[in-house]
Amino acid sequence: MLDGFACAVLRGSVTGLLGPSGSGKTTLMRAIVGVQVVAAGTVTVLGHPAGSPRLRHKVGYVTQAPSVYADLTVRENARYFAGLYRLGASAADRAIETVGLTGHAGQLVANLSGGQRSRASLACAIVGRPEVLVLDEPTVGQDPLLRDELWAHFRRLAAEGATVLVSSHVMDEAGRCDRLLLVREGVLIADDTPAAVRAAAGTDDLDQAFLRLIRGRVAA
Q1: CB 124 within 8 A of CB 117
Q2: 150 — pLDDT class (breaks 50, 70, 90)
């Protein structure tokens, strides 16, 4: 449950949604995508109610569990999703290359490692170049080099005007974001730039900053 939660995610930015497991990150992302029942309050995406039919081709979503067809190859999955956007094979191939799976394009998803399946799911989400990209812990299980390449791609998407919301519980990724939403037990405890979060907590370490903000709230 999200309690008194109010925020705005800016277009053309990478916003980090951070907090421990069970803090409400996935609930918020599902609400933005339009697959979460919202009992009270409103969620607006690109000027329309979340889940509106007109948003279907404008919002990309990568869940923690890979959302691809295990009995198809990586290439077949990407081309299927490209077809939904009326795009050709070249768009699918570019997406596969972006996530570092060109060498595995002909493999069945069922035969991929967990990290590779996650990348295949990401390829399918970005193939249509969505205006809003919601990513639920997309770098979990990825090696440091690929994590760096994926974050570089998230930055490029934002530079091209996309709104990128990335959840994580790994604080070393927070510094890569333009803005941070720090969540604990459904409550938004910080909504600011990484520099401002550090300043408010009086430390350059974002891990420590998060802990100090939590402790400060509990003490209050």
Answers
A1: no
A2: confident
